[in-house]
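@channel sequence for tomorrow's demo:
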Amino acid sequence: MSIQDIANQMKAKVEASGFERSVKFDTGPDGVIVIDGTTISTTEAPTDCTVKLSMDDFESLLAGDLNPTMAFMSGKIKVEGDMSVAMSLSKLV
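C-alpha cells (generated this afternoon):
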C-alpha cells in the first residue's frame, strides 16, 4: 500500500475526529502523512509532533495488529516533539 492509499483510507476518520493539533507520520523513504486538525496530506510540513516508523509498522498499527505502547517501548516507533499529541492519536489510528 502506498502512503497516498493510507492517507485516503484515513481521510474520513480524520475529518470526523475533531483533532485540533498537528502530527506527522514519517515513514522515511516511503513518505509522510501530515494531519493538521481535520485535514490530511502527504506533503511535508512542520507539526507539533512527529511519529517515525517503518511503512510495515504503520500498516500494522492501522490494522490494529501493532500495539502502539509496545511498539514505542521496543523502539519500533519514535516520537519527536509534543508527546501529549502522540498520546491523543487513539482517535485517529
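heads up for whoever presents: The chain has a mean pLDDT of 94.
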